[in-house]
């Protein structure tokens, strides 16, 4: 029980991440099956909605931080840097001639942990106003 309490914030972050991924995928499937836009458009729309949902849930439940436009800008920046890191890792693995699963595993185990740390230390840090 003590172990769960110690990692409670990270576990909450993980649950929000799973919910976020599920919503993103659901929106993509819904759009693709009903309106059939280009996949990039469906994913872009899903990203916007899921990112706003993720910010809201992480603000309220994970980091218990007040929501603000300034806070969302930081959150969005971290999200976009995480996306860039994901693309960098997967591209480097592909360039090295390794199986794509190696890159996928690296992304699964590296990006969320770094994302959580930057969110905790910077994006959701208490303002010094």
How would you explain this protein's 3D organization?
It is globular and about 40 Å long. It is mainly alpha-helical and 129 residues long. The chain contains five helices and no strands. It has helices spanning 2-6, 8-34, 39-62, 69-95, 100-123. The termini are far apart. Helices cover 83% and strands 0% of the residues.
Secondary-structure blueprint:
Layout: H1 2-6, H2 8-34, H3 39-62, H4 69-95, H5 100-123
Q: Mind telling me the C-alpha Rg?
A: 16 Å
Low-confidence spans: pLDDT under 50, at least 5 residues?
A: none
> Approximately how much helix is present in the residues?
over 70%
Number of helices: 5
Q: What is the number of beta strands?
A: 0
First-last Cα distance = 37 Å
Global structural class: mainly alpha
> What is the average per-residue confidence, as pLDDT, rounded to a whole number?
94
Shape: globular
The helix/strand series, from N terminus to C terminus, equals HHHHH
Main β sheet profile: none
Strand portion: under 5%
Describe the structure concisely for a colleague:
The chain contains five helices and no strands. By secondary structure, it is mainly alpha-helical.
List keywords for this structure.
mainly alpha; single chain; 129 residues
């Amino acid at each position: 029980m003590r172990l769960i309490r110690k990692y409670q914030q990270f576990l909450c972050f993980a649950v929000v991440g799973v919910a976020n991924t599920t919503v993103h995928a659901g929106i993509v499937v819904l759009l693709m099956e009903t309106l059939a836009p280009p996949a990039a458009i469906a994913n872009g729309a899903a990203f916007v909605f899921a990112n706003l949902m993720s910010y809201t849930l992480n603000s309220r439940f994970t980091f218990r931080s007040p929501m603000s436009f300034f806070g969302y800008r930081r959150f969005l920046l971290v999200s976009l840097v995480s996306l860039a890191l994901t693309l960098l890792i997967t591209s480097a693995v592909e360039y090295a001639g390794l199986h794509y699963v190696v890159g996928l595993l690296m992304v699964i185990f590296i990006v969320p942990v770094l994302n959580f740390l930057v969110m905790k230390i910077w994006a959701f840090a208490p303002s010094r106003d």
